[in-house]
Amino acid sequence: MAIVYVDNKPCEMNPEENLLHGCLSNGFKLPYFCWHPALGSVGACRQCAVKQFKDANDSLGRIVMSCMTPAAEGTRISIADPEAVAFRAGVIEGLMLNHPHDCPVCDEGGECHLQDMTVMTGHSYRHYEFDKRTFRNQDLGPLVNHEMNRCIQCYRCVRYYRDYAGGNDLNAFASRDQVFFGRSEDGVLENEFSGNLVEICPTGVFTDKTLKHHYARKWDQQFAPSVCVHCALGCNTDAGERYGTVRRIVNRYNHEVNGYFICDRGRFGYEFVNNERRFRQPVLKGQPTSAASARRYLDEKIAGGRAIGIGSPRASLESNFALRTLVGPDHFYSGMADYEAKLVRFMLEILRRGPMRTPTLHEIEECDAVFILGEDLMNVAPRMALSVRQSVRQQPMEAVKKLKVPLWLDHGVRDAMQDAKGPLYIATSCRTRLDDVATATFHAAPDDLARFGFAVAHALDSRAPASQDWPLGGEIARALKAAKKPLVISGASCASEAVIQAAANVAMAAHAALSFTAPECNTVGAALIGGNSLSAAFQAVREGDADTVIILENDLYRRAPRAEVDSVLKAAPHIIVLDHLPNPTTEKAELLLPAGTFAESDGTFISSEGRAQRFFQVCEPQNEVLASWRWLKPDHWRNLDDVLAAMAEALPELAVVRDAAPSSKFRIAGAKIPRSPHRESGRTAVLVNIDVSEPKTPDDPDSALSFSMEGTPEQPPAALIPFFWSPSWNSIQAVNTYQKEVGGPLRGGDAGVRLFEPAAMNGQPYFTAIAPAFQPREGEWLLVPMYHIFGSDELSLSAPGIRELAAKPHVAVNSDDFAEGTEVEVSCGGDTFQLPVRIRPDIPHGVAALSVGLSPVNGITLPAWGKIERPK
Ligand code: SF4
Ligand code: SF4
Ligand code: FES
To answer: What strands lie across the sheet with 424-428, from one edge to the other?
Structure first.
């Protein structure tokens, strides 16, 4: 560390960083706009000015921008110097000349970085008396709102959107003193990470449009630490609620997982919680009933001794375990399709066995050569795609280091790099949204992807079995071999064990890290809980071994063909379903139990990294809604701690899950952690029409969080941070005050515990079974799955904003036999459905890509051979 003197006080600073970073890391209040820890410095706003002195004898000094000056050993600066103070006050006055001063009607008001910085600089009176510059705002789609008059021209938005997230439809447009940040014309922002503009923009230009529909100030919401339910990456979020409605999701910084950014599905998919079709009361035989009689009915069926339970990869570990306990381990069945459960268990076995380690999302950003085999990351694991996008900068950065350009000097680095990109190879069945930064891509049917992977592994290590020569194979092998931190990414998307084996061989041969994607938020947890196969559950019902089927948060029509599920559910005398929203399975329920979503429940998910992470209810469930584990638990489990203790005893591999967050007994100086910011207003008035006395806030027996603004003012452990706030920092930028060093891990460590590290470091045998080459068939197509970030995820599809953007189901082929957009009949596995056809030259001949997760294409096991014909 370097010693830098700030107003004569010696401070330790990272010499690889700039002075602004060092000052903020040391807790100084130094205003800034254009700098961001994830974006680096460009010196655009001039707000972070300090005075720098040559040495201890220099009393004159000169104004420098702290974000553009290295934190070199012995540097002497002053933040409090009157000229520096006046300079910063002048800058903000200039930036505010055209600002509409409309904080009272601005959604950002009360949590605005511009407000914070204005107060910090002491600028409280405007001298400017002339007309303000005004702009026309744009309609940017259902997720992000645009109000350009509030812009202070810091350029963060375009730097984030274009340089970091890879978008190209947002830009800065300028004419004389008019600088406009937006699109060339109205239209939906195309980038899948556009929602981060809401947090990146330091003012109210870009705000959350879904929040606007049910607006509440930050200080009027109560928050809880949560985990995204819309894919398996487990991005950390904070959910905000008021009056029983979830108002928004914001990013909860986790250095190892999502860092500062989440995807739009994760940010805006939450509105399924508020969907008016939510189940709020138990329904027995079509009639609403009380919780007590519903539970009595459930107990009667269990007492009969012939009940089975079907778990779910989108339900928490605790809910799956409670169901397993209720019906007994022998009668508990996995809620995943058979092929999926098998693949996930296989992937876990590979990761446990080693020697490849699964990296965190942060570690993926630091990898310097990446090979993706069979995964369309943007549509399956979006935040991982963003990490991979950063990884292509790693290798060119080495050249930049040699030029001695500091890595935080963003424009310097980009000038030195030009368009250079490190090695990224993508082998999939069709093109992906990461192809724009790929060194090369390869498109083939799953079996050929596997063979391609085997060839790469063989080129790396001749002991690995060979398939055939592919021109690109040697190039990929050389790139992985030359890398310091090579990475292989694969997963269950192709539904091909051969692809997974090939990826494992490449990772082993390259001594690379290995990352597997998984389909749902708790797929890994469900696999670890275990259970018999779904087809065994179906068989038990068909053969009359079970008279009651309890289905946990799971639409079985997404897991198996319609006809099969229909026949099983018809054969089941009693069907009990726990879920949030109507779906084809809930339609068949004799007893329907309203299950709490992530917003009304506590629980744990295990991410595809193998990280157990706890989420907490943000509000008291209304009506008869309960967390699924509460519906199913035995009486002697009083709270979440009891569930976790019972799970640790029954399934020792999951004992460590208890450490994912402090228990309900955790206190700081005897106090709980408040869910509401201390400025919460209006709470006392909410029920004043009923009683002028303030009612007691609800107890929370399951966590160390209180439903109140009372509690400790200290920073809680990372897993329990409901919102980021510290004195003078009301915006999301307050997160910088929670970190050990700005941009680094949170003080006290980041949230979550990893469940498995590879057991062995070497000596594992290669997989040897090489699939035969793909042979197109006359009159048939190999149907492969095609995922959509907006559309394939079941829950987010019930959020209006996401639904508006959702892909329309279709089948994509590379063929002259069909015309773009015409309706065709796709038949496969006994099912036939009509879909429009899209012509895609990137798809291999003989292969057709089918939208999955969207009706009518649900429950089909892909890849599979099928027919595509014009309707007769
Ligand atoms: S829109 Fe926001 S982020 Fe973009 S330049 Fe203006 S103030 Fe900065
Ligand atoms: S990447 Fe996945 S976990 Fe992260 S925010 Fe998006 S959907 Fe949620
Ligand atoms: S933050 Fe330093 S110039 Fe903008």
So the answer is: 440-443, 424-428, 369-373, 486-491, 513-517
Which pLDDT value is given to residue 124?
A: 81
In sequence order, which residues have a C-beta less than 8 Å from that of residue 378 and are 6 or more positions away?
Answer: 192, 385, 432, 433, 434, 789
Amino acid, single-letter form, for residue 824? V
Integer Cα distance of 725 and 709 in angstroms:
13
Separation CA 299–CA 288 (nearest Å): 18
CB 812 within 8 A of CB 852: no
Q: At CA 614, angle to CA 611 and CA 619, rounded to 5?
A: 155
Write phi, then psi, for 127 (nearest 5 degrees).
-95, -15
Cα–Cα–Cα angle for 452, 504, 774, rounded to 5 degrees: 30
Distance in angstroms (rounded) separating the CA atoms of residues 353 and 273? 39
State the distance from the centre of ligand 3 to the C-alpha of 44, rounded, in angstroms. 6
Alpha helices for 125-166 (secondary structure H): 156-158
Q: What percent of the chain has pLDDT over 70?
A: 99
Torsion of CA 770, 776, 778, 782, to 10 degrees: 90
Binning pLDDT at 50, 70 and 90, where does residue 761 land? low
Single out the residue of 472, 443, 282 nearest to residue 373, CA to CA: 443
Q: What is the mean pLDDT of residues 86-104?
A: 94
Helix (H) or strand (E) holding 425: strand 424-428
Return the sign of the alpha-carbon dihedral for residues 269, 270, 275, 278: positive
Q: Do residues 772 and 836 touch, judged by C-beta distance below 8 A?
A: no
Name which residue sits closest to atom 6 of ligand 1, judged by CA: 151
For residue 611, the cross-strand partners are 754
Backbone torsions φ then ψ of 676, nearest 5 degrees: -110, 145
Cα separation, 790 vs 266, in Å, equals 10
Kind of pairing, strands 591-594 and 283-284? Answer: antiparallel
In the reported structure, the alpha carbon of residue 512 is separated from the centroid of ligand 2 by a whole-number distance in angstroms of 24
Closest ligand by atom to 408 CA:
3
Residue by residue, DSSP assigns 561-620 as -HHHHHHHHHH-SEEEEEESS--TTGGG-SEEEEB--TTT--EEEE-TTSEEEEE--SSP
Half-sphere exposure of 753 (CA within 13 A, CB side): 13
CA 227/CA 234 separation, integer angstroms: 6
86: buried, middle or exposed (CB in 10 Å: 19+, 13-18, 0-12)?
Answer: middle
Q: Which residues line ligand 2 (CB under 6 A)?
A: 228, 230-231, 233-235, 258, 262-263, 265-266, 382-383
Sign of torsion, CA 432 437 442 447? negative
> Does the beta carbon of 272 sit less than 6 angstroms from any atom of ligand 3?
no
User: pTM higher than 0.85, yes or no?
Assistant: yes
Backbone φ and ψ of 579, nearest 5°: -165, 175
Q: Which atom of ligand 1 is nearest to the CA of 114?
A: 7
**Residue appearing with tokens 């200039």:** 94
What sign for the dihedral angle of Cα 502, 506, 508, 514? Answer: negative
Nearest CA to ligand 1 atom 2: 201
Axis-axis angle for helices 113-121, 82-95 (nearest 10): 140
Q: Which of 379, 342, 315, 807 is nearest to 555 (CA)?
A: 315
CA distance 475 to 714: 53
Which pLDDT value is given to residue 626?
97
Cα 191 to middle of ligand 1, angstroms = 17
Residue 305, phi then psi, degrees to nearest 5:
80, 5
Q: What pLDDT, on the 0 to 100 scale, is given for residue 685? A: 72
- Cα separations (Å) of 283 from 66, 245, 289? 63, 23, 6
Reported confidence tier of residue 689, pLDDT bands at 50, 70, 90:
confident
Mean pLDDT (the chain) is 95
Ligand 3 atom at minimum distance from 43 CA = 3
